[in-house]
Design brief:
256 residues; TIM Barrel; binds 1,3-dihydroxyacetonephosphate; 12 helices; globular; alpha/beta
Length: 256
């Protein structure tokens, strides 16, 4: 059985003080249940890079893992404004979100670039969360699986079969992000199934170990039905991860 992954992406929200307060509140709430939650799921948050040290201090020794929203593929060098894997690892960052649609569509990141980041994350023992997803117009033109499987294949180029299980995939349809209009479990499940099939074609049985998350307008109200779908192995949450109460509720999905 695959462990669930419940991931909060704070995007460009919260100051360091606010990030620390949110992390503290989450820890207080979720660490009470750490043994039960830890049986079948991982929970993590990805604060803005500059707030990682404050959140790392707050979460030290907690059951809540720490993630980054992006990183460069080189370890160091003349890359103004960028952050590298060794810098993140020093603060205990384990997860890194890569190829988020906002990186692709606002900052022009291409598949080849994202692929290099995935390989770097694996080289450093981190867990890459590779995001894929079609835009609203691609969706309307019936191009969802073409777009998603192309992003998947290119994003995973040269990832050895032995390392594939360490990668998580997040299917985030762009039309569902921040819109309040989530994909239904059935809609997402079809895409997740296609992703799983493509992973099997590529790498065989190890594909069954890869976690495929859904992201896009996930809330405390819709998480149970999404994660209840057998092909949905967790969620990547934006807006609803910015409040301790809603994210803690999401993290407890399926637990009475
Ligand atoms: P929302 O949950 O705010 O729709 O954002 C989803 C997302 O982009 C998470 O990475």
């Amino acid at each position: 059985m695959r462990r669930l992954l419940i991931a909060g992406n704070w995007k460009m929200n919260l100051t360091a003080a606010e990030s620390q307060a949110l992390a503290g509140a989450l820890r207080k709430d979720l660490d009470r249940d750490a043994a039960r939650l830890g049986r079948d799921r991982d929970v993590m948050v990805a604060p803005p890079a500059v707030n990682i040290p404050a959140v790392a201090r707050e979460l030290y020794g907690s059951s809540i893992g720490l993630g980054a929203q992006n990183m460069h593929f080189e370890d160091r060098g003349a890359f103004t404004g960028e952050v590298s894997a060794p810098m993140l690892k020093e603060f205990g960052v384990v997860y890194v979100i890569l190829g988020h649609s906002e990186r692709r569509h606002i900052f022009g990141e291409r598949d080849e670039f994202i692929n290099r980041k995935v390989l770097t994350a694996l080289r450093h023992g981190m867990t890459p969360i590779l995001c894929v997803g079609e835009t609203g117009s691609e969706h309307d033109r019936g191009e969802t699986s073409t777009v998603v499987l192309r992003q998947l294949q290119r994003g995973l180029d040269q990832v050895p079969e032995g390392e594939l299980a360490r990668v998580a995939i997040a299917y985030e349809p762009v039309w569902a992000i921040g819109t309040g209009r989530n994909a239904t479990p059935g809609e997402a499940g079809i895409v997740h199934g296609a992703i799983r099939e493509a992973l099997r074609d590529r790498s065989g049985a190890v594909a069954d170990q890869v976690r495929i998350l859904y992201g896009g307008s996930v809330t405390a109200d819709n998480v149970d039905s999404l994660v209840g779908h057998p092909d949905i192995d967790g969620v990547l949450v934006g807006g609803a991860s910015l409040k301790a109460e809603s994210f803690a509720r999401i993290a407890r999905t399926g637990i009475a």
